[in-house]
Design a protein that fits this description.
5 helices, Neur_chan_lig-bd, 10-stranded mixed beta sheet, extracellular ligand-gated monoatomic ion channel activity, Neur_chan_lig-bd_sf, Acetylcholine Binding Protein, Chain: A, alpha+beta, Neurotransmitter-gated ion-channel ligand-binding domain-containing protein, Neur_channel
Length: 262
Protein backbone atom coordinates (compact mmCIF):
# COMPACT_ATOMS: atom_id res chain seq x y z
CA UNK A 1 0.00 0.00 0.00
CA UNK A 2 2.81 2.41 0.86
CA UNK A 3 4.52 1.83 -2.50
CA UNK A 4 1.21 2.28 -4.30
CA UNK A 5 0.49 5.60 -2.57
CA UNK A 6 4.00 7.04 -2.95
CA UNK A 7 4.69 5.87 -6.52
CA UNK A 8 3.61 9.21 -8.05
CA UNK A 9 3.55 11.28 -4.86
CA UNK A 10 5.37 14.64 -4.84
CA UNK A 11 6.17 15.71 -1.27
CA UNK A 12 7.25 19.19 -2.42
CA UNK A 13 3.70 20.11 -3.49
CA UNK A 14 0.89 21.09 -1.14
CA UNK A 15 -1.45 18.09 -0.61
CA UNK A 16 -4.48 19.59 -2.37
CA UNK A 17 -5.90 18.94 -5.83
CA UNK A 18 -7.14 22.52 -6.20
CA UNK A 19 -4.35 25.07 -5.70
CA UNK A 20 -6.89 27.52 -4.20
CA UNK A 21 -7.68 25.14 -1.34
CA UNK A 22 -6.23 26.01 2.08
CA UNK A 23 -4.46 23.29 4.04
CA UNK A 24 -5.69 23.25 7.65
CA UNK A 25 -3.00 22.24 10.14
CA UNK A 26 -3.97 21.50 13.74
CA UNK A 27 -1.39 21.75 16.54
CA UNK A 28 -1.52 20.17 19.97
CA UNK A 29 1.28 20.43 22.54
CA UNK A 30 1.94 17.99 25.40
CA UNK A 31 4.44 19.39 27.92
CA UNK A 32 6.71 16.70 29.40
CA UNK A 33 9.40 18.66 31.24
CA UNK A 34 10.61 22.22 31.61
CA UNK A 35 13.62 24.01 33.03
CA UNK A 36 14.02 27.71 33.86
CA UNK A 37 17.30 29.54 33.28
CA UNK A 38 16.83 32.50 35.62
CA UNK A 39 19.89 34.40 34.45
CA UNK A 40 18.56 34.83 30.89
CA UNK A 41 15.63 34.43 31.71
CA UNK A 42 14.46 31.64 29.43
CA UNK A 43 12.40 28.47 29.53
CA UNK A 44 13.60 25.13 28.14
CA UNK A 45 10.59 23.07 27.05
CA UNK A 46 10.58 19.36 26.34
CA UNK A 47 7.29 18.54 24.62
CA UNK A 48 5.39 16.20 22.37
CA UNK A 49 4.15 18.29 19.43
CA UNK A 50 1.26 16.91 17.40
CA UNK A 51 0.53 18.17 13.87
CA UNK A 52 -2.36 16.87 11.78
CA UNK A 53 -3.74 17.74 8.35
CA UNK A 54 -5.52 16.20 5.35
CA UNK A 55 -3.51 14.94 2.37
CA UNK A 56 -5.82 14.55 -0.62
CA UNK A 57 -3.28 12.42 -2.50
CA UNK A 58 -2.87 9.79 0.22
CA UNK A 59 -6.27 8.13 0.57
CA UNK A 60 -7.60 4.69 -0.35
CA UNK A 61 -10.71 2.52 -0.12
CA UNK A 62 -10.42 0.61 3.14
CA UNK A 63 -13.09 -1.87 2.04
CA UNK A 64 -11.02 -2.77 -1.03
CA UNK A 65 -7.66 -3.04 0.70
CA UNK A 66 -8.84 -4.04 4.19
CA UNK A 67 -6.52 -1.49 5.77
CA UNK A 68 -7.58 1.27 8.17
CA UNK A 69 -4.26 3.06 8.65
CA UNK A 70 -0.53 2.69 8.24
CA UNK A 71 2.66 4.26 9.59
CA UNK A 72 4.87 6.21 7.23
CA UNK A 73 8.12 8.08 7.82
CA UNK A 74 7.72 11.86 7.99
CA UNK A 75 10.54 12.32 5.46
CA UNK A 76 8.34 10.72 2.78
CA UNK A 77 5.46 13.17 3.28
CA UNK A 78 4.68 16.78 2.54
CA UNK A 79 5.00 18.68 5.80
CA UNK A 80 4.06 22.28 6.62
CA UNK A 81 7.08 24.60 6.75
CA UNK A 82 6.55 25.74 10.32
CA UNK A 83 9.26 27.39 12.41
CA UNK A 84 9.53 28.90 15.87
CA UNK A 85 9.67 32.67 16.10
CA UNK A 86 11.08 34.31 19.24
CA UNK A 87 14.22 36.10 20.41
CA UNK A 88 16.08 32.84 20.90
CA UNK A 89 17.84 31.06 18.02
CA UNK A 90 14.99 29.65 15.97
CA UNK A 91 14.74 27.04 13.30
CA UNK A 92 12.35 24.77 11.53
CA UNK A 93 10.62 22.00 13.41
CA UNK A 94 12.91 19.52 11.70
CA UNK A 95 15.85 21.06 13.59
CA UNK A 96 14.05 21.21 16.95
CA UNK A 97 12.26 17.86 16.67
CA UNK A 98 13.62 14.37 16.15
CA UNK A 99 12.72 12.14 13.21
CA UNK A 100 9.59 10.10 13.66
CA UNK A 101 6.85 8.18 11.89
CA UNK A 102 3.43 9.59 11.12
CA UNK A 103 0.05 7.90 11.20
CA UNK A 104 -1.81 7.93 7.88
CA UNK A 105 -5.50 7.01 7.82
CA UNK A 106 -7.49 5.75 4.85
CA UNK A 107 -9.27 9.11 4.40
CA UNK A 108 -5.95 10.97 3.99
CA UNK A 109 -5.71 12.27 7.55
CA UNK A 110 -2.05 12.61 8.59
CA UNK A 111 -1.05 12.82 12.28
CA UNK A 112 2.56 13.35 13.34
CA UNK A 113 3.63 13.30 16.99
CA UNK A 114 7.21 14.52 17.47
CA UNK A 115 9.45 14.83 20.55
CA UNK A 116 10.76 18.41 20.50
CA UNK A 117 12.88 20.75 22.59
CA UNK A 118 12.44 24.53 22.47
CA UNK A 119 14.10 27.45 24.25
CA UNK A 120 11.64 30.27 24.92
CA UNK A 121 12.51 33.82 25.93
CA UNK A 122 10.69 35.00 29.07
CA UNK A 123 9.74 38.39 30.49
CA UNK A 124 9.62 39.36 34.15
CA UNK A 125 10.08 42.30 36.48
CA UNK A 126 12.62 42.06 39.29
CA UNK A 127 10.76 44.54 41.50
CA UNK A 128 8.90 41.76 43.33
CA UNK A 129 11.82 39.29 43.29
CA UNK A 130 11.75 36.51 44.50
CA UNK A 131 7.94 36.66 44.25
CA UNK A 132 8.02 37.50 40.54
CA UNK A 133 6.16 35.63 37.78
CA UNK A 134 7.74 34.58 34.49
CA UNK A 135 5.75 35.07 31.28
CA UNK A 136 7.08 33.00 28.38
CA UNK A 137 5.61 32.85 24.87
CA UNK A 138 6.48 30.43 22.08
CA UNK A 139 5.47 31.42 18.54
CA UNK A 140 4.98 29.15 15.53
CA UNK A 141 4.61 30.47 12.01
CA UNK A 142 4.88 29.34 8.42
CA UNK A 143 7.75 30.87 6.46
CA UNK A 144 6.75 29.65 2.97
CA UNK A 145 2.95 29.41 2.83
CA UNK A 146 0.63 32.39 3.13
CA UNK A 147 -2.58 32.36 5.16
CA UNK A 148 -4.49 31.61 1.95
CA UNK A 149 -2.43 28.43 1.55
CA UNK A 150 -1.98 27.28 5.15
CA UNK A 151 -4.23 27.75 8.16
CA UNK A 152 -2.91 26.99 11.66
CA UNK A 153 -5.21 26.26 14.60
CA UNK A 154 -4.82 24.75 18.08
CA UNK A 155 -6.89 21.71 18.94
CA UNK A 156 -7.01 22.74 22.60
CA UNK A 157 -4.93 24.37 25.31
CA UNK A 158 -1.50 23.01 26.23
CA UNK A 159 -1.84 19.53 27.71
CA UNK A 160 -0.13 18.84 31.06
CA UNK A 161 -1.12 15.18 31.10
CA UNK A 162 2.49 13.95 31.01
CA UNK A 163 4.07 16.86 32.86
CA UNK A 164 6.79 16.23 35.44
CA UNK A 165 6.66 19.19 37.85
CA UNK A 166 9.96 20.78 38.84
CA UNK A 167 10.89 21.65 42.42
CA UNK A 168 11.95 25.27 41.84
CA UNK A 169 9.23 26.54 39.49
CA UNK A 170 5.61 25.59 39.05
CA UNK A 171 3.51 26.11 35.94
CA UNK A 172 0.65 28.44 36.87
CA UNK A 173 -1.24 28.65 33.58
CA UNK A 174 -1.02 28.16 29.84
CA UNK A 175 -2.80 29.84 26.97
CA UNK A 176 -3.05 29.49 23.19
CA UNK A 177 -3.70 32.32 20.76
CA UNK A 178 -4.33 31.89 17.03
CA UNK A 179 -3.68 34.86 14.78
CA UNK A 180 -6.50 35.65 12.39
CA UNK A 181 -5.04 36.78 9.07
CA UNK A 182 -6.57 39.96 7.68
CA UNK A 183 -5.07 39.59 4.20
CA UNK A 184 -4.36 36.63 1.97
CA UNK A 185 -0.66 37.50 1.83
CA UNK A 186 -0.28 37.41 5.64
CA UNK A 187 1.66 34.61 7.26
CA UNK A 188 -0.29 32.45 9.73
CA UNK A 189 1.03 32.14 13.27
CA UNK A 190 0.01 30.73 16.61
CA UNK A 191 1.38 31.34 20.11
CA UNK A 192 1.63 29.22 23.27
CA UNK A 193 2.00 31.21 26.51
CA UNK A 194 3.29 29.94 29.85
CA UNK A 195 3.17 31.62 33.28
CA UNK A 196 5.45 30.29 36.03
CA UNK A 197 6.19 31.16 39.65
CA UNK A 198 8.62 29.85 42.25
CA UNK A 199 7.57 27.16 44.69
CA UNK A 200 7.05 28.29 48.30
CA UNK A 201 10.11 26.36 49.48
CA UNK A 202 12.36 28.53 47.32
CA UNK A 203 11.21 31.66 49.18
CA UNK A 204 12.54 30.24 52.45
CA UNK A 205 15.88 29.35 50.86
CA UNK A 206 16.25 32.87 49.44
CA UNK A 207 14.94 34.95 52.36
CA UNK A 208 16.21 33.03 55.43
CA UNK A 209 19.95 33.87 54.99
CA UNK A 210 19.11 37.56 54.60
CA UNK A 211 17.01 37.62 57.78
CA UNK A 212 19.75 35.81 59.71
CA UNK A 213 22.37 38.36 58.65
CA UNK A 214 20.08 41.22 59.71
CA UNK A 215 19.35 39.64 63.12
CA UNK A 216 23.05 39.06 63.82
CA UNK A 217 23.89 42.64 62.78
CA UNK A 218 21.27 44.02 65.20
CA UNK A 219 22.42 41.72 68.01
CA UNK A 220 25.98 43.07 67.72
CA UNK A 221 24.70 46.53 68.71
CA UNK A 222 23.98 45.21 72.22
CA UNK A 223 27.55 44.05 72.74
CA UNK A 224 30.22 46.16 74.44
CA UNK A 225 32.07 48.37 71.97
CA UNK A 226 35.47 47.29 73.31
CA UNK A 227 34.66 43.58 73.11
CA UNK A 228 36.90 41.69 70.63
CA UNK A 229 34.03 39.27 69.96
CA UNK A 230 32.04 42.18 68.55
CA UNK A 231 34.77 42.84 65.97
CA UNK A 232 34.88 39.18 65.00
CA UNK A 233 31.11 38.97 64.57
CA UNK A 234 31.03 42.23 62.57
CA UNK A 235 33.66 40.82 60.22
CA UNK A 236 31.61 37.67 59.72
CA UNK A 237 28.40 39.65 59.09
CA UNK A 238 30.19 41.84 56.51
CA UNK A 239 31.27 38.70 54.72
CA UNK A 240 27.70 37.37 54.98
CA UNK A 241 26.31 40.56 53.42
CA UNK A 242 28.76 40.26 50.54
CA UNK A 243 27.96 36.59 49.88
CA UNK A 244 24.21 37.24 50.04
CA UNK A 245 24.45 40.15 47.58
CA UNK A 246 26.52 37.99 45.23
CA UNK A 247 23.87 35.27 45.48
CA UNK A 248 21.13 37.74 44.52
CA UNK A 249 23.26 39.15 41.70
CA UNK A 250 23.74 35.74 40.06
CA UNK A 251 20.03 34.93 40.28
CA UNK A 252 18.69 38.15 38.79
CA UNK A 253 18.04 38.83 35.13
CA UNK A 254 20.97 40.87 33.84
CA UNK A 255 18.87 42.37 31.00
CA UNK A 256 16.60 44.45 33.22
CA UNK A 257 16.76 47.85 34.88
CA UNK A 258 14.42 46.91 37.74
CA UNK A 259 15.76 46.84 41.30
CA UNK A 260 14.27 44.33 43.79
CA UNK A 261 12.46 45.81 46.78
CA UNK A 262 14.45 43.60 49.12
Amino acid sequence: MKKLLCSEYDKTERPVRNHNTTVNVTLLMYVKEYYVIEREPSLILSVWLSLSWMDEFLSWDRAEYGLEMLNIDSSELWRPTIQTMDSKPSGTLRKSCRDHECELKHNGNVSCLSPCTFEVHCHSTNVEWPFDVLDCTLYFSSWLEYASQLNMTAQSNVSKQYLKEKTNWQLLSTDVHTHTAMNYDDYPWISFSFALERHMGVYAVVMTPGFMVVVVSLAVLWMHSASPERLYILSVTCLGHYIYLEYIYWHLDYNTNDVPKI
